[in-house]
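the two lines:
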Amino acid sequence: MKKVLGLAVLFVLTGVAMAFAAESTQAAIGNGFLGLVVLGACLGVGVAASGCGVGMGHCVRGACEGIARNPELSGKLTVTMILGLAFIEALTLYALVLSFYLVFAKLPSYMALIGA
Amino acid sequence: MEHPLLFLCYLLQLLGIPSGPHYYEEASKYGIMAYIFAPHMVHSYFVCLLLIVLIKIGLKRRDLIPRGGQNFWEFTVESLYNFTRDNVPHGEHGKINLVPYVFPLIVMFALYILFSNYLGLIPGFMCPTANINVTLGLTLITIVYYHFLGLRFQGLKYFKQFLGPIPYLIPLIAPAEIFGHIGRIISLSVRLFANMMAKELLIGILLFLAGPFLAPLPILALGVLVAFIQMLIFITLSLAYFAGAVEEEH
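prediction for all of em together
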């Protein structure tokens, strides 16, 4: 856990350093900003996927236990489980859409920032 | 997702109509035709046309013992009818019967979304539902209609749902309820859109990374499943909203 936290702090510091290091040139600031945004988008999808993975694991475990106790219900349980999984999956996709918006829809404004 | 190789848009371009992704991006230059014949709109019209033609063919000859197309449509409509009846109040225990009000809408949603989702699996076509405008339109139909049904069956008592049971908690409950109803618009539209977009994006990335033939095949197979499940989720949630609007809070 400590290692992960240290790594995350290192990443963030690297990004901040990139953003603040070369204040002299406009281009470097723009590049560092874009880097931070990409980093944030990737981390956001990763965190969302890990949380949803835990949720889906609980969901499948519950369905498996239910089927093991009462195999006759397997059809109904499977349908309910797949519906639930699709609901959980949508949460990750919200993060994916948001990160795509950050990276691609905002790209022209970053490009304007660095003057390209 | 819009990709450069769209057969329908190409056909329309041959007729001289400004249709296609690059026209849509600069639509202010090409006028209103570029909006009307935007790629997602063209494919949406195509799905509507396909449904009309298929239903006309299915209804052409009606036998007592159904065969072929008639069999398929009877199965589809009967399954949808049973699904609708199971999920909304249908006149049991003296309650209201909501089935005639929502059944045609649910059939339209189910067939349109299913055919739209499956259209994206054919090379050279795109999903109309992989565009946020189309899914937002479908969602707004649901949202407006369930508020209408709530007012129709409960009258002004419908607004009591927003206030909660305890009078002095109204300032807390009412904003939360209203925010929940706004959140339904976002969640219902973005769920369908994001699932379809993510599937097509994954296919595109695999195409560029690992070659055109075998790599996207598992994702396409998964896409068949996802397309059906997303249709099922959309109509399930719509039915849940319809049922929630007309039932009294206990």
